[in-house]
UniProtKB/TrEMBL annotation, chains A, B:
Name this protein carries in UniProt: ArsR family transcriptional regulator
Keywords linked to the UniProt accession: DNA-binding, Transcription, Transcription regulation
UniProt cross-references to InterPro entries, sorted A to Z: ArsR-like_HTH (IPR011991), HTH_ArsR_DNA-bd_dom (IPR001845), HTH_MetalResp_TranReg (IPR051081), WH-like_DNA-bd_sf (IPR036388), WH_DNA-bd_sf (IPR036390)
SUPFAM superfamilies recorded: Winged helix' DNA-binding domain (SSF46785)
SMART domains: HTH_ARSR
Domain of life: Bacteria
Organism: Lentzea atacamensis
One Pfam family from the record: HTH_5
Span of domain HTH arsR-type: 5-101
Zinc-finger recorded as keyword: no
The keyword Transcription is annotated on this UniProt entry: yes
DNA sequence: GGCTTGGATTGACATTCGTCGATCCAGTCT
DNA sequence: AGACTGGATCGACGAATGTCAATCCAAGCC
């Protein structure tokens, strides 16, 4: 990936911003480690002591950024981690990526 | 709720937030790809068409978050990428990390 | 000393963002 | 149909953030 850094920066920043809040990092982590890689809203609500509307708001931001995907199955909403988005950021931060020196691996 | 993740989430979110702006992603990338892994303010100012105070502000945020480090050498300020910070995020996003399924690599 | 330059800090402003109660909507059950 | 439930959306509020001009400070030069 050469210097289309301009475009990548916008994309990466959008994803980074979505993860720029501790609760949202925890949410993504929780969904990720849930059996089947997906969790319903009710499960997540049990884990966090915050109003339901706040939780829904943070999930919406993650969905809008493309970090999570939402699917309504019957009564419940299910959330999954979009691995492509995580992969995008991982590549940006990986050794040799735009933000990381290729020679500075795991010091 | 996983308490060990709590601490990590706060740290990770602080770094993510610092990178949650396109200009700052570009700044880090520019510093990283500069000869010697460090760039002075004047070099960076040449690359971006924005007021000097704005640029300084964004750099300060990156420094405060620990993504960049600043060193005043004589008249000029030099910036370097803190590889430990980038490494922290890379590990969070790496396959097997808190946000990434170990089995879901590059689907 | 006074002048100039690189760049950090300040202050004001508008915008965005997080928080949370209140409301609304879609499924489900009776 | 009406009642109930899971969750999304709305609205208001305060706090944080980006932008930029103006100012200030330190280092070099006359």
């Amino acid at each position: 990936m050469p210097d289309q850094l301009q475009l990548d920066a916008t994309t990466a920043a959008r994803l980074f911003k979505a993860l720029g809040e501790p609760i949202r990092v925890e949410l993504v982590g929780l969904v990720r480690r849930t059996e089947g890689q997906e969790a319903c809203f009710c499960d997540l609500a049990d884990q966090f002591d915050m109003p339901q509307s706040s939780l829904s708001h943070h999930l919406k931001i993650l969905v809008q950024a493309g970090v999570l995907s939402r699917e309504r199955r019957g009564t419940w909403s299910w959330y999954r981690v979009d691995n492509a988005a995580i992969d995008t950021l991982a590549q940006v931060l990986a050794p040799g990526g735009p933000l990381r020196d290729s020679s500075a691996c795991c010091d």
